[in-house]
Specification:
By secondary structure, the chain is an alpha+beta fold. The chain folds into 4 domains: about 5-95, Orthogonal Bundle (DNA ligase i, domain 1), CATH 1.10.3260.10; about 105-150; about 165-360, DNA ligase/mRNA capping enzyme (D-amino Acid Aminotransferase, Chain A, domain 1, 2-Layer Sandwich); about 375-505, Nucleic acid-binding proteins (OB fold (Dihydrolipoamide Acetyltransferase, E2P), Beta Barrel). Helices cover about 35% and strands about 25% of the residues. It is built from 17 helices and 22 strands. It has helices at about 5-15, 15-25, 50-60, 65-80, 85-95, 105-115, 120-130, 135-145, 145-150, 175-180, 215-225, 250-255, 265-270, 290-300, 320-330, 420-430, 495-505; strands at about 165-170, 180-185, 190-200, 200-205, 230-240, 250, 270-280, 285, 310, 315, 335-340, 355-360, 375-380, 390-400, 405-410, 430-435, 440, 450, 455-460, 460-465, 475, 480-485. The protein binds adenosine-5'-triphosphate. Adenosine-5'-triphosphate binds near residues 166 and 188.
Length: about 500
């Protein structure tokens, strides 16, 4: 079958697994892409799960020159051994599009009940997962060694932990939540990094816990040369800078670093500075249970600051007036705002948690919403007039971590220039699906449905009670597109409970 024909079926089906199933079920002699086999509908033999596992592992580990052929060879071998229906699921596994609508938290509940018979053990499993976010590994330990071994899982060099996040509350209530005195820090407009240094081996993990060290060889070098500790895990924000390392540039400039090739050129074009703000482990000592000021002091002890490596600007204050002064100063210098951090005895680092120990403040404007909202795009409407040929209006959803569903929140179209519309139209093309995805709840009917993958930031005038989006119950008045958030995964977007809090804070 010709590639073009396969593409046509793919567009119709909207899913590579279903496409393969249709093609293979036709029982025709194949050409082109699938020409390795006369009749793919007849499988050679059945495939053992262990065989599938080691083949997938081999595929994942193969890299460098020739890896494409190796991967293709393994894929061929697998497809030869699977029926059309099995191929459908095989391809969905490989392309990470196999969805059964079960959230991580539900699996954790299931593990607790299934392996220990006691639901409350879910807390230990969740804690372990936050420190070692691979449910496969955690399950193996639970199954082979039991809950006591799961409870021993700890922060480890080379394994990223789920990051601590910040809540939002109206500025007048921040100090009530954090206690006073507190520390305020610039909220920099860059990308969060979790840095693991083990001797000379440096790994940088993104907010989605992906290893993105290759994007920042300069950051790896500066860490290697300017940290006075053999092993350390720290966090900071990497920010694009002008060539004199004086002025911070917005996140959009930093996004150029996402390129896989020509990294040396792009490194020269976009210099960066890493601003450190936390330390989680140093040599043999875990700092997770230490209070914030102890952690900050340790950072100060081990970092030699220079143009490309600094500590984030911070100040200890007592009053809301001081907090506002610091906020205005931060904004003047091009930051997104500030993060207020509790310094009380219990101000520990809480992996994977969005609590009130850290509170972000991005805007003060009366009437306007206090913060932006990150949504995943789940649907789009064809543009009209000047927007013919691109999508004009989009539906953004927020995430419910309990049910694992994306829940429609608002339509939006303002703030998109022609160039942005063009680029968004291209970005979403590969996520178009034939019908509403199972993990989406939406009362609107767009022209095209999308897998919730593309994340954007929007801001509006206020959160209103919605008569349309009844599941969420809220929507946004005058939503305006702010920016793409390519560094965020769909599950890192704003949660439903945060919308509730935003509504109450108005
Ligand atoms: P936002 O959408 O507002 O950037 P977010 O959803 O990425 O926020 P939040 O928990 O809301 O995450 O805010 C924390 C984020 O702010 C961090 O992930 C980090 O990237 C960024 N940040 C910038 N400066 C700091 C700082 N001084 N301390 C902690 N995080 C900071």
């Amino acid at each position: 079958m010709k590639k073009k024909k396969i593409k046509e079926i793919l567009i119709k089906k909207g899913d590579i697994g279903a496409t393969a199933e249709v093609i293979l079920a036709k029982k025709k002699k194949q050409k082109s892409l699938f020409d390795f086999k006369e009749d793919l509908s007849e499988t050679d033999s059945s495939l053992e799960i262990s065989e599938l596992y080691s083949a997938l592992q081999k595929m994942a580990l193969s890299e460098g020159t020739g890896s494409h052929d190796v991967k293709l060879g393994i894929l061929r071998g697998l497809m030869r051994k699977t029926s059309p229906l099995e191929t459908k699921y095989l391809l969905r596994i490989i392309t990470s599009t196999l969805r059964v609508g079960v959230s991580t938290m539900t699996i954790i509940d299931g593990l607790a009940l299934g392996f220990t018979g006691v639901k409350k053990n879910r807390d230990s499993i969740e804690k372990a997962y936050n420190l070692h976010p691979d449910l496969g590994d955690v399950t193996l330990i639970l199954a082979e060694k039991g809950i006591s071994e799961v409870e021993r899982i700890d922060i480890e060099y080379g394994v990223p932990i789920r990051m601590m996040l910040a809540s939002r509350v109206p500025y007048g209530e921040i100090i009530e939540k954090t206690g006073s005195p507190l520390t305020v820090e610039y909220k920099l407009d860059g990308e969060r990094l979790q840095i693991h240094k083990e001797h000379d081996k440096i790994k940088l993990f993104s907010r989605r816990l992906l290893d993105i060290s290759k994007q920042f060889p300069d950051v790896c070098r500066v860490i290697k040369d300017n940290i006075r500790a053999t092993n350390v895990i720290m966090e900071g924000e990497v920010v694009a800078m002008d060539h004199f390392y004086e002025k911070m540039l917005p996140f959009q400039v930093l996004s150029k670093r996402r390129r896989k090739y020509d990294i040396d050129d792009i490194m020269k074009e976009v210099p960066v500075c890493l601003f450190l703000f936390d330390i989680l482990k140093c040599d043999n000592e875990s700092f997770l249970s230490e209070s914030f000021l102890v952690r900050r002091k340790k950072l100060e002890e081990i970092v030699s600051e220079r143009d490309e490596l600094r500590l984030v600007k911070s100040k200890t204050i007592k009053l809301t007036e001081e907090l506002l002064d610091f906020f205005n100063e931060a904004r003047k210098e091009g930051n997104e705002g500030i993060i207020a951090k509790s310094i009380e005895d219990n101000s520990v680092y809480q992996p994977g948690n969005r609590g009130f120990l850290w509170i972000k403040l991005k805007g003060l404007e009366g009437g306007k919403l206090k913060d932006s909202v990150d949504v995943a795009i789940i649907g789009a409407f064809y543009g009209k007039g000047r927007r013919t040929g691109v999508y004009g209006t989009y539906i953004g959803a927020v995430y419910d971590p309990v049910s694992g569903k994306f829940i429609a929140f608002t339509r939006f179209f303002s703030g998109l220039t022609d160039e942005l519309s063009e680029s968004l139209t291209q970005d979403i093309a590969k996520y178009i699906v034939k019908k509403k995805p199972n993990n989406v709840i939406c009362e609107d009917i767009p022209d095209v449905w999308l897998e919730p993958e593309v994340v954007v930031e929007i801001i509006g005038d206020e959160i209103t009670i919605s008569e349309k989006f009844l599941t969420l119950g809220y929507s946004m008045r005058f939503p305006v597109f702010q920016k793409f958030r390519p560094e965020k995964g769909p599950k890192d977007i704003t949660y439903v409970n945060e919308i509730d809090e935003l509504y109450k804070s108005q």
